[in-house]
Design goal:
Blueprint lengths: L7 E4 L7 H9 L4 E4 L2 H6 L2 E4 L5 H10 L3 H10 L4 E4 L1 H4 L4 E2 L5 E2 L6 E5 L8 E9 L13 E7 L1 E5 L5 E6 L3 E8 L2 E4 L7 H14 L2
Parallel strand pairs: 1-2, 1-3, 3-4, 4-13, 5-7
Antiparallel strand pairs: 5-6, 7-10, 8-9, 8-11, 11-12, 12-13
C-alpha cells in the first residue's frame, strides 16, 4: 500500500527498470513509493535513483520533471541518503558524453565514458565485483562474487577514494562508488540474487 509520506522514494523519471527494485525493497517491509511527486521526494528519508538507458535522456527527464534542484537540495543540503543504480549511478557524475555532452547531478566528481574494451558491448551478465575496502555496505558478503550488469558506459572517477569496488571487462572500471551519503552501484543488486538482497539490506540498515 502506498502511503502519503514514504520513508523510501524511488524516483520515477521514465527510464524503466523499477519492478525488481520495488519488490526487493518491499521484501524488507520498507515503506516504498515510486513517484516523481515533489512533495513525496521532499518527505523522503532515502532516495533511490534507478534506470537504464542513456545519460543524456536520464538528465533530460529529470530536468523536464523539474527534479534536479530538489534532488540536489535533499542530497547536498539535507544529507538525505541516495542510492543510484546503473544509469542512476552514472547520473551522480559531473558529466557524461553518451550521445552528446551532458551535465550530471555532480554529486561525485567524474565523467561517464564508453568502456574501452575488446569485448562485446553492452556488457551484459554476471561478473565479479572486487571490494576495495572494508566498507560496511559489503558486510557479510564474500569478496569477488558475481553481480548482474547491463551497460556500455562506465564512471571515470576523478578521486579514487570514491571507488569502493571495481569490475574487469577487458578494462577495470568502478562498479560501486561512494561519497558520504551518496552511493552508486553500476550493477543491479535487485537482479543479483542473495548477494544483491544482502547488499540492499545493508544499505537500508546503514541508513535506518
Amino acid at each position: 500500500m502506498i502511503i502519503s509520506n514514504p520513508e523510501i522514494v524511488i524516483i520515477d523519471y521514465n527510464t524503466g527498470n523499477v519492478d525488481s527494485i520495488i519488490k526487493i525493497l518491499k521484501f524488507f517491509n520498507s515503506s516504498v513509493e515510486l513517484t516523481n511527486s515533489h512533495k513525496a521526494i521532499e518527505n523522503a528519508q532515502i532516495i533511490i535513483l534507478p534506470g537504464q538507458g542513456s545519460f543524456s535522456f536520464g538528465m533530460e527527464q529529470l530536468n523536464n520533471l523539474r527534479l534536479i534542484d530538489l534532488i540536489k537540495d535533499k542530497v547536498i543540503n539535507k544529507k538525505t541518503p541516495i542510492l543510484g543504480i546503473c544509469l542512476g549511478m552514472q547520473i551522480l557524475a559531473t558529466s557524461g558524453i553518451e550521445n552528446k555532452y551532458t551535465e550530471g547531478l555532480g554529486f561525485i566528481d567524474g565523467e561517464i565514458k564508453k568502456i574501452p574494451t575488446k569485448y562485446k558491448l553492452p556488457h551484459i551478465g554476471w561478473n565479479e565485483v572486487s571490494f576495495k575496502n572494508n566498507n560496511k555496505i559489503f558486510f557479510d558478503i564474500e569478496n569477488n562474487k558475481d553481480f548482474y550488469f547491463i551497460h556500455s558506459y562506465y564512471f571515470e572517477c576523478k578521486n579514487k577514494e570514491n571507488i569502493i569496488a571495481t569490475t574487469n571487462y577487458g578494462f577495470e572500471f568502478p562498479s560501486a562508488i561512494q561519497k558520504k551519503n551518496i552511493l552508486g552501484f553500476q550493477f543491479h543488486p535487485e537482479k543479483s540474487l542473495k548477494n544483491g538482497l544482502k547488499l540492499i539490506g545493508n544499505f537500508l540498515k546503514n541508513n535506518a
